[in-house]
Amino acid sequence: MAKDEYLFNPGDFVVYPARGVGQVTGIQSEDVCGQKLDFISVSFNKDKATVKIPLSKIKKDASSLRRISSGDMMDSAVRVLKSKAKIKRVQWSRRSQEYMEKIKSGNPIMLAEVLRDLYKDPEKSEQTYSERQIYDQAMGLFVPEYALVHKMKEDEAVVKLSSILKSRSSDAE
């Protein structure tokens, strides 16, 4: 295949929902059980891992790997962060499952929904351990993409997003 035929090229930043933001390092063909398969290698600096994803999986499953979100998509996600929390009146086990499904999607809008719904101002109330775990997981996937889109450092993005969430919670009073 010619380089132009691939959806992603070396150097492109991508999002792999299970791991977050990574950078394409190359595209290789390998012999696996007598079959020639094309793989895309994605490096994740955060956990110093490289993942090889079969190109056939990427073409069939749009949720497996995607380009970094546009500025418009991130703006929509920020609008979700600023909106009022929508917490369903169901048992925590069911809600936590729904939050985990949203996290697994890797979709910034869905990640923003999880962050919005689980944010609690540390000065006013405490999150439970499981709420904190899910919140941290969503934040860990959302922040790197937000930082990349807005050309800022991740720690700056955390401060910015936290202030958005905090201002929303103080507006609700």
Task: Give a structural overview.
The protein has 173 residues and is α+β, with helices and mostly antiparallel strands. The chain folds into 2 domains: 3-67, Thrombin, subunit H; 71-171, Methane Monooxygenase Hydroxylase, Chain G, domain 1, CATH 1.20.58. The chain contains 6 helices and 5 strands. It has a 5-stranded antiparallel beta sheet with strand order 4-3-2-1-5. α3 (92-105) packs antiparallel against α4 (108-118), α4 packs across α5 and α5 packs across α6 (154-171). The chain is elongated. The mean pLDDT is 87.
CATH class value of the largest domain: Mainly Alpha
Overall geometric form: elongated
The CATH architecture of the largest domain comes to: Up-down Bundle
Q: What sequence of helices (H) and strands (E) makes up the elements?
A: EEEEHEHHHHH
Distance between the ends? 58 Å
Largest sheet: 5 strands, antiparallel
Features:
single chain, 173 residues, alpha+beta, 5-stranded antiparallel beta sheet, 6 helices
